Amino acid sequence: MFKKQNEFQILKSLERDSRPTQRQLSNDLGVSLGKVNYCLKSLIDKGFIKVNNFRNNKNKIQYSYLLTPKGIEEKTKLTFDFIRIKTQEYDTLKQEIEILKQEAKDVDRDLS
Fold first, then answer.
1. How many beta carbons lie within 10 A of that of residue 34, not counting itself?
2. Which residues are CB-neighbours of 29 under 8 A, at least 6 positions away?
3. What is the pTM of this model?
């Protein structure tokens, strides 16, 4: 589950900016640099992103991560999964809140 969520977050980030460093992705997503590296390799192996390297103005090699058509399709699927999961979580929380409200009313009534 968490791997899919990390992949979704990385694909979403790369769609917005194709040239972040792995350290930037790590900081932005709140995950370790190793996890970002692992997920990027997995996404590359699956054919979801393509990597290009280039030299930036500091004469260092930097990478550009581009979503492939397959990657865009996967991001769309993961988006729907994410929405479904979050909707289920919302519905569960809403039910729990209603139960807690009723329990609080019952306690208040018993104390009165």
1. 10
2. 6, 9, 10, 13, 36
3. 0.71
